Amino acid sequence: MPSLNTALHTSFTAHRPAWPRLLPGGLLLAASLLKFWQIFQTPLAPAVNPVDFILARGLPALELLWALWLFSGKRPQWALAVTAAGFAVFSIYTLHKITQGSASCGCFGAWEVRPQVTYWVDVGAFFVAASALTQRWFAGGRPGWRAGFFFGAVLGVAVGLYAWAVNRAPQAPSPPGQWVGQTWPTPGALDTVADFRAGRWVVVLFNASCGRCQAVADDYADLAQLWRSERREIGVALISTVAETAPVSAPEVATGRFHTTQPYGTPPVVLVVADGKIVAAHEGRDSVDWTAPPFAAWLVP
Known about the structure:
Blueprint: H1 4-14, H2 19-41, H3 50-72, H4 76-100, H5 115-133, H6 145-168, E1 190-192, E2 200-206, H7 211-229, E3 234-240, E4 254-258, E5 269-274, E6 277-283, H8 295-299
Parallel strand pairs: 2-3, 3-4
Antiparallel strand pairs: 1-4, 2-5, 5-6
Protein backbone atom coordinates (compact mmCIF):
# COMPACT_ATOMS: atom_id res chain seq x y z
CA MET A 1 0.00 0.00 0.00
CA PRO A 2 1.51 3.35 -1.03
CA SER A 3 2.46 5.75 1.74
CA LEU A 4 0.63 9.01 2.35
CA ASN A 5 3.60 11.01 1.03
CA THR A 6 3.67 8.97 -2.17
CA ALA A 7 -0.06 9.39 -2.65
CA LEU A 8 0.16 13.15 -2.12
CA HIS A 9 3.07 13.41 -4.55
CA THR A 10 1.21 11.37 -7.18
CA SER A 11 -1.87 13.58 -6.79
CA PHE A 12 0.24 16.74 -7.02
CA THR A 13 2.01 15.70 -10.22
CA ALA A 14 -1.23 14.44 -11.74
CA HIS A 15 -2.86 17.82 -11.20
CA ARG A 16 0.02 20.11 -12.05
CA PRO A 17 -0.97 23.80 -11.59
CA ALA A 18 -1.47 25.78 -14.77
CA TRP A 19 0.00 29.10 -13.65
CA PRO A 20 3.66 28.16 -14.39
CA ARG A 21 2.55 27.84 -18.02
CA LEU A 22 0.09 30.72 -18.13
CA LEU A 23 2.35 33.38 -16.62
CA PRO A 24 5.23 33.05 -19.12
CA GLY A 25 2.67 32.51 -21.86
CA GLY A 26 1.01 35.81 -20.99
CA LEU A 27 4.35 37.62 -21.14
CA LEU A 28 5.14 36.11 -24.53
CA LEU A 29 1.69 36.95 -25.86
CA ALA A 30 1.95 40.56 -24.69
CA ALA A 31 5.45 40.94 -26.18
CA SER A 32 4.31 39.44 -29.47
CA LEU A 33 1.21 41.62 -29.84
CA LEU A 34 3.11 44.80 -28.94
CA LYS A 35 5.76 44.01 -31.56
CA PHE A 36 3.09 43.32 -34.19
CA TRP A 37 1.41 46.62 -33.27
CA GLN A 38 4.71 48.48 -33.69
CA ILE A 39 5.24 46.91 -37.12
CA PHE A 40 1.68 47.82 -38.09
CA GLN A 41 2.05 51.41 -36.88
CA THR A 42 5.62 51.98 -38.10
CA PRO A 43 6.73 49.48 -40.75
CA LEU A 44 10.37 48.55 -40.23
CA ALA A 45 12.71 49.33 -43.07
CA PRO A 46 15.08 46.51 -44.06
CA ALA A 47 18.03 46.48 -41.69
CA VAL A 48 21.58 46.44 -42.99
CA ASN A 49 22.09 43.10 -41.29
CA PRO A 50 19.68 40.50 -42.83
CA VAL A 51 19.61 38.58 -39.53
CA ASP A 52 18.26 41.67 -37.73
CA PHE A 53 15.67 42.15 -40.46
CA ILE A 54 14.44 38.53 -40.16
CA LEU A 55 14.36 38.60 -36.36
CA ALA A 56 12.38 41.83 -36.34
CA ARG A 57 9.55 40.05 -38.15
CA GLY A 58 10.06 36.42 -37.20
CA LEU A 59 10.42 36.83 -33.44
CA PRO A 60 6.86 38.17 -32.85
CA ALA A 61 5.40 35.20 -34.75
CA LEU A 62 7.61 32.78 -32.83
CA GLU A 63 6.58 34.33 -29.50
CA LEU A 64 2.91 34.07 -30.47
CA LEU A 65 3.18 30.37 -31.35
CA TRP A 66 5.20 29.76 -28.19
CA ALA A 67 2.51 31.41 -26.05
CA LEU A 68 -0.24 29.36 -27.71
CA TRP A 69 1.73 26.19 -27.00
CA LEU A 70 1.95 27.08 -23.31
CA PHE A 71 -1.75 27.92 -23.17
CA SER A 72 -2.71 24.64 -24.85
CA GLY A 73 -1.14 22.46 -22.15
CA LYS A 74 0.24 20.06 -24.76
CA ARG A 75 3.46 18.32 -23.67
CA PRO A 76 3.81 20.59 -20.63
CA GLN A 77 7.22 19.27 -19.62
CA TRP A 78 8.68 20.11 -23.02
CA ALA A 79 6.92 23.47 -23.11
CA LEU A 80 8.27 24.41 -19.69
CA ALA A 81 11.78 23.23 -20.58
CA VAL A 82 11.77 25.34 -23.76
CA THR A 83 10.38 28.27 -21.78
CA ALA A 84 13.09 28.05 -19.12
CA ALA A 85 15.80 27.88 -21.79
CA GLY A 86 14.21 30.66 -23.81
CA PHE A 87 13.96 33.13 -20.94
CA ALA A 88 17.53 32.31 -19.97
CA VAL A 89 18.55 33.41 -23.48
CA PHE A 90 16.37 36.52 -23.19
CA SER A 91 18.07 37.44 -19.93
CA ILE A 92 21.49 37.19 -21.61
CA TYR A 93 20.25 39.48 -24.39
CA THR A 94 19.00 42.07 -21.89
CA LEU A 95 22.37 41.93 -20.12
CA HIS A 96 23.94 42.85 -23.45
CA LYS A 97 21.52 45.78 -23.76
CA ILE A 98 22.43 46.94 -20.26
CA THR A 99 26.14 46.95 -21.12
CA GLN A 100 25.33 49.04 -24.21
CA GLY A 101 23.47 51.61 -22.14
CA SER A 102 20.28 51.12 -24.18
CA ALA A 103 17.19 52.98 -23.06
CA SER A 104 15.00 50.03 -24.09
CA CYS A 105 15.62 46.47 -25.23
CA GLY A 106 12.74 46.55 -27.73
CA CYS A 107 11.23 43.46 -26.11
CA PHE A 108 7.78 45.04 -25.91
CA GLY A 109 7.67 46.85 -29.23
CA ALA A 110 7.15 50.59 -29.04
CA TRP A 111 6.48 50.38 -25.29
CA GLU A 112 9.85 51.30 -23.87
CA VAL A 113 10.93 49.21 -20.89
CA ARG A 114 14.42 49.64 -19.49
CA PRO A 115 16.57 46.51 -19.90
CA GLN A 116 17.34 46.70 -16.16
CA VAL A 117 13.64 45.94 -15.59
CA THR A 118 13.26 43.46 -18.45
CA TYR A 119 16.20 41.44 -17.14
CA TRP A 120 14.46 40.67 -13.85
CA VAL A 121 11.20 39.92 -15.67
CA ASP A 122 13.11 37.35 -17.76
CA VAL A 123 14.82 35.90 -14.67
CA GLY A 124 11.46 35.67 -12.91
CA ALA A 125 9.88 33.84 -15.85
CA PHE A 126 12.83 31.43 -15.89
CA PHE A 127 12.33 30.70 -12.19
CA VAL A 128 8.62 30.05 -12.70
CA ALA A 129 9.19 27.58 -15.55
CA ALA A 130 12.17 25.90 -13.89
CA SER A 131 10.36 25.51 -10.56
CA ALA A 132 7.56 23.58 -12.26
CA LEU A 133 10.14 21.27 -13.82
CA THR A 134 11.87 20.56 -10.50
CA GLN A 135 8.78 19.48 -8.55
CA ARG A 136 10.09 15.91 -8.60
CA TRP A 137 12.78 17.03 -6.13
CA PHE A 138 10.08 17.30 -3.48
CA ALA A 139 8.99 13.66 -3.80
CA GLY A 140 8.72 11.49 -0.74
CA GLY A 141 8.29 14.35 1.72
CA ARG A 142 11.82 15.62 1.20
CA PRO A 143 12.42 19.21 2.36
CA GLY A 144 13.64 20.14 -1.13
CA TRP A 145 17.17 21.15 -0.16
CA ARG A 146 18.44 20.29 -3.63
CA ALA A 147 15.89 22.60 -5.26
CA GLY A 148 16.71 25.31 -2.75
CA PHE A 149 20.43 24.96 -3.44
CA PHE A 150 19.85 25.04 -7.21
CA PHE A 151 17.67 28.15 -7.19
CA GLY A 152 19.90 29.86 -4.66
CA ALA A 153 22.91 29.28 -6.90
CA VAL A 154 21.01 30.50 -9.98
CA LEU A 155 19.85 33.63 -8.15
CA GLY A 156 23.42 34.31 -7.03
CA VAL A 157 24.65 34.02 -10.62
CA ALA A 158 21.80 36.27 -11.84
CA VAL A 159 22.63 38.96 -9.28
CA GLY A 160 26.34 38.73 -10.09
CA LEU A 161 25.77 39.03 -13.85
CA TYR A 162 23.44 41.99 -13.32
CA ALA A 163 26.02 43.79 -11.18
CA TRP A 164 28.68 43.10 -13.83
CA ALA A 165 26.47 44.45 -16.64
CA VAL A 166 25.51 47.60 -14.72
CA ASN A 167 29.18 48.22 -13.93
CA ARG A 168 30.10 47.92 -17.63
CA ALA A 169 27.26 50.17 -18.83
CA PRO A 170 28.47 53.52 -20.19
CA GLN A 171 27.77 56.55 -18.06
CA ALA A 172 24.47 58.12 -19.02
CA PRO A 173 25.00 61.38 -20.89
CA SER A 174 23.41 64.65 -19.87
CA PRO A 175 20.00 65.37 -21.45
CA PRO A 176 20.27 66.70 -25.03
CA GLY A 177 18.78 70.01 -23.90
CA GLN A 178 21.99 70.64 -21.94
CA TRP A 179 24.17 70.18 -25.02
CA VAL A 180 23.22 73.57 -26.48
CA GLY A 181 26.34 75.65 -26.99
CA GLN A 182 28.70 72.66 -27.01
CA THR A 183 31.04 71.86 -29.87
CA TRP A 184 29.88 68.84 -31.86
CA PRO A 185 31.05 66.27 -32.69
CA THR A 186 34.08 65.34 -30.63
CA PRO A 187 37.07 65.10 -32.99
CA GLY A 188 37.55 61.54 -34.23
CA ALA A 189 34.25 60.27 -32.78
CA LEU A 190 32.45 59.82 -36.11
CA ASP A 191 32.96 57.82 -39.26
CA THR A 192 31.56 60.26 -41.83
CA VAL A 193 32.63 62.50 -44.69
CA ALA A 194 30.40 65.36 -43.54
CA ASP A 195 32.08 68.47 -42.14
CA PHE A 196 29.93 69.81 -39.32
CA ARG A 197 32.37 72.63 -38.57
CA ALA A 198 30.85 74.78 -41.30
CA GLY A 199 27.26 75.52 -42.30
CA ARG A 200 23.92 74.58 -40.83
CA TRP A 201 23.04 70.95 -40.15
CA VAL A 202 20.14 68.89 -38.88
CA VAL A 203 21.68 65.73 -37.40
CA VAL A 204 19.53 62.71 -36.53
CA LEU A 205 21.12 60.27 -34.06
CA PHE A 206 19.31 56.96 -34.37
CA ASN A 207 19.51 53.24 -33.74
CA ALA A 208 18.75 51.15 -36.83
CA SER A 209 17.06 48.45 -34.72
CA CYS A 210 14.49 51.02 -33.53
CA GLY A 211 11.49 51.09 -35.86
CA ARG A 212 10.51 54.62 -34.88
CA CYS A 213 14.11 55.79 -35.41
CA GLN A 214 14.12 54.36 -38.91
CA ALA A 215 10.84 56.10 -39.72
CA VAL A 216 12.21 59.41 -38.44
CA ALA A 217 15.36 58.93 -40.55
CA ASP A 218 13.16 58.42 -43.63
CA ASP A 219 11.17 61.57 -42.79
CA TYR A 220 14.35 63.65 -42.60
CA ALA A 221 15.57 62.23 -45.89
CA ASP A 222 12.34 63.61 -47.40
CA LEU A 223 12.86 66.93 -45.58
CA ALA A 224 16.34 67.18 -47.04
CA GLN A 225 14.86 67.02 -50.54
CA LEU A 226 12.22 69.60 -49.63
CA TRP A 227 14.71 72.05 -48.14
CA ARG A 228 16.99 71.66 -51.12
CA SER A 229 14.11 72.42 -53.49
CA GLU A 230 13.40 75.55 -51.39
CA ARG A 231 17.07 76.51 -51.73
CA ARG A 232 17.66 76.40 -48.00
CA GLU A 233 21.31 75.94 -47.17
CA ILE A 234 20.69 73.19 -44.62
CA GLY A 235 22.46 69.85 -44.53
CA VAL A 236 20.84 66.73 -43.13
CA ALA A 237 22.88 63.91 -41.60
CA LEU A 238 21.77 60.50 -40.34
CA ILE A 239 24.23 59.15 -37.75
CA SER A 240 23.97 55.64 -36.27
CA THR A 241 24.73 55.45 -32.55
CA VAL A 242 25.58 51.74 -32.85
CA ALA A 243 29.15 51.14 -33.95
CA GLU A 244 28.41 47.75 -35.52
CA THR A 245 25.71 49.19 -37.80
CA ALA A 246 26.83 50.33 -41.22
CA PRO A 247 25.79 53.86 -42.22
CA VAL A 248 22.42 54.01 -43.94
CA SER A 249 22.25 54.77 -47.63
CA ALA A 250 19.93 57.65 -48.47
CA PRO A 251 19.95 60.27 -51.23
CA GLU A 252 20.31 63.96 -50.39
CA VAL A 253 21.70 63.29 -46.90
CA ALA A 254 25.06 62.74 -45.26
CA THR A 255 25.46 59.50 -43.31
CA GLY A 256 27.80 58.12 -40.70
CA ARG A 257 28.23 56.22 -37.48
CA PHE A 258 30.10 56.48 -34.20
CA HIS A 259 33.31 54.50 -33.82
CA THR A 260 32.01 53.21 -30.46
CA THR A 261 28.40 52.59 -29.49
CA GLN A 262 27.04 55.76 -27.92
CA PRO A 263 23.99 56.07 -25.63
CA TYR A 264 22.17 59.27 -26.52
CA GLY A 265 19.07 59.35 -24.35
CA THR A 266 15.88 58.09 -25.94
CA PRO A 267 16.40 57.68 -29.68
CA PRO A 268 15.93 59.33 -32.02
CA VAL A 269 17.74 62.54 -31.04
CA VAL A 270 17.67 65.52 -33.41
CA LEU A 271 20.51 68.05 -33.15
CA VAL A 272 20.58 71.44 -34.86
CA VAL A 273 24.24 72.27 -35.50
CA ALA A 274 25.56 75.59 -36.79
CA ASP A 275 29.27 76.00 -37.55
CA GLY A 276 30.20 73.10 -35.30
CA LYS A 277 28.09 74.08 -32.28
CA ILE A 278 24.75 72.71 -31.10
CA VAL A 279 22.08 75.42 -31.15
CA ALA A 280 19.04 73.22 -30.39
CA ALA A 281 18.30 69.60 -29.48
CA HIS A 282 15.21 67.40 -29.39
CA GLU A 283 14.94 63.95 -27.79
CA GLY A 284 12.23 61.32 -28.04
CA ARG A 285 9.66 59.84 -30.36
CA ASP A 286 7.47 62.91 -30.90
CA SER A 287 8.20 64.96 -34.00
CA VAL A 288 10.08 68.26 -34.00
CA ASP A 289 7.79 71.26 -34.45
CA TRP A 290 9.67 73.36 -37.02
CA THR A 291 7.11 76.19 -36.65
CA ALA A 292 7.96 76.77 -32.95
CA PRO A 293 11.10 78.25 -31.38
CA PRO A 294 13.97 77.61 -31.36
CA PHE A 295 13.62 75.67 -34.59
CA ALA A 296 11.41 78.07 -36.56
CA ALA A 297 13.86 81.01 -36.42
CA TRP A 298 16.75 78.77 -37.35
CA LEU A 299 15.02 77.62 -40.55
CA VAL A 300 14.63 81.14 -41.96
CA PRO A 301 16.70 81.28 -45.18
